[in-house]
Amino acid sequence: MGENSQWWRGAVIYQVYPRSFCDTNGDGIGDIRGVIKKLDYIESLGVDALWLSPFFKSPMKDFGYDISDYRDVDPIFGTLEDFDELVAQSKSKGIRIMIDQVLSHTSDQHAWFTESRQSKTNPKADWYVWADADSDGNPPNNWISIFGGGAWEWDEGRQQFYFHNFLRSQPDLNYHCPQVRAQILEEMEFWLKRGVDGFRLDAINFCYHDSQLRDNPFKPEKERTGRGFSSDNPYAAQYHLYDNTQEENLEFMESIRELLDRYDGSVALGEINSETSLKTLAEYTQGNKRLQMGYNFELLADEFSSNHIKNTVNELEAVIGEGWPCWAVSNHDVTRVVTRWGTGEHRNEFAKMILAMAASLRGTLCVYQGEELGYTESPIEQHQLQDPFGIEFWPEFKGRDGCRTPIAWNRDEPLAGFSDKASWLPVAKCHIDNCVEVQDANPDSVLNFYRTFLAWRKGEQTLLVGDIEFVDAPEQLLVFKRTHNAQTTLAIYNLSDQPLVWRCNSNIKPLPSSPSQGVENLNGELTVSKFGFGYFSI
Ligand code: BGC
Which site in 78, 99, 209, 530 is 20 to 30 Å from 55, CA atoms measured? Predict the structure, then answer.
């Protein structure tokens, strides 16, 4: 292992959703050249790596999470040459590139599926999950799709059903088939050879399904929580014991790691969403033979309280062992954090406090484009909907368009500098008022806070790799210690919009040059203003 190999511990990874980042060819959809154009901006944030959401060939039914060719760039995003240039330019700035790999399913337009559906005997006949109808002509079991309806689609040609966890145009690959596993590893290696530093592995615990196709048990109402999907979604009414997170998948994680270990410093961050996500995350990242990091949805949920954060972290710490978590409070699938957790008041203070908190938990952090600008969820009307998930469940669930609207760069340019001609989703008015240009010029902006905070954090070993321990404090005041090599940092956050007072029993001193907001320390009696926070040595 080279000295490079541990860069990801405590790193900050910036998620770019390229459709909405910057459009350079006027088609209203962001592209790879747009990411290249804004690399100086990304560099200015002080992040370690960039995670690029899918840019591969795709019919775009799920906006790129439905891949029809793993080895090519979709023309709406550019070309392989553009991608190579992005890799070269990012590297020259010291920013690593991680790309999304959507391995559990392909698009129904993928050549593998076209071949597989031809017959029951063709060379790729077993590459997808095919099953006969039961004696009444019904699907083989009760599995349902996250995006609505049953998880089985009838195929006239083969006279069989195929399985899809997501859209019916996203058939699941059959990982019980050894040729599929071998082929997928080759698809991944294609990008490692092109110089990527690693992968975000989409829905990675969804690769395998139960080979006996057993029914999922019914889940009572009180147990239904939404992790990236609403608790009203029928999907929430089952325990997903058999359609994902099968034991066999761990061996496949090890094969992925073997591949990564041949490319020094390359890593995998697995997106994990199971019935016991934190336990699964620990399993998937255990030892040095599996994935390096696991991404979870616990802080992407609606629930917001110091107890929720504390319980989540403690639950994870109890099982994590040598594994490693990655936290996120926003992404392209959930309502933006300032809207989801905020009260609407003092939005900028709230956004700063949340970043500071999330970036101080033990683990790596993913920051989703726009989060560094304190973006709220954009209002989306029904006629503007693009997301198939929102179209299916409107109005109970409005889909994911509100967190995917384009970045507003310049106040006075058409479409706020996102594109000079069009925009696939509207650029939100509230974001234009708060655009990059405006925030750049304001030393107190959320954007400038991010830059300062991340620059400071880089030098704080306790925050990067230290152990974590929570400290008892009044409700809504989240207090924890991070300790590394006999050095301890005490971190406190007021999650509420009311000032809180807390007497700290230890002798504490403000950490030199640490960012803070609204904290006063009178001989250990701390007054923390609404959404205030601070860092102390102890
Ligand atoms: C991605 C979603 C996508 C789904 C299906 C998720 O976990 O983040 O955006 O729709 O996988 O690929």
Answer: 209
